[in-house]
UniProtKB/TrEMBL annotation:
Lineage, opening ranks: Bacteria, Pseudomonadati, Pseudomonadota, Alphaproteobacteria, Hyphomicrobiales
Pfam families: ThiS
Organism: Mesorhizobium newzealandense
Name of protein: MoaD/ThiS family protein
Residue intervals passing through the bilayer: none
InterPro entries for this protein: Beta-grasp_dom_sf (IPR012675), Mopterin_synth/thiamin_S_b (IPR016155), ThiS/MoaD-like (IPR003749)
Family matches, as CDD domains: Ubl_MoaD_like
Organism superkingdom: Bacteria
């Protein structure tokens, strides 16, 4: 079980929750389980989400394992230009 902090629109898509606990071994499984529990998050995942694990940002490494006790933040893709 990992605790995940959801920033910005991700929290709103999870029913206003800024932190959730999910049983997941890697980023791919984390995204899958989040989409199952909070269907409103799935379009945001499809657009792109950055995952910060203990201060390191992962953008395309969905097989990255989630260490127990890690600080995990999900950040939606920023738009603009």
């Amino acid at each position: 079980m990992v605790e995940v902090t959801l920033w910005g629109s991700l929290g709103a898509a999870a029913g206003g929750k800024n932190k959730v606990e999910i049983e997941a071994k890697d980023i791919r499984e984390l995204f899958r389980k989040l989409a199952e529990q909070y269907p409103g998050i799935e379009p945001l995942i499809d657009r792109g989400i950055a995952v910060a694990i203990d201060g390191t940002i992962y953008r395309d490494t969905w097989s990255k394992e989630l260490p127990k006790g890690a600080e995990i933040f999900l950040l939606p893709r920023l738009a603009g230009g």
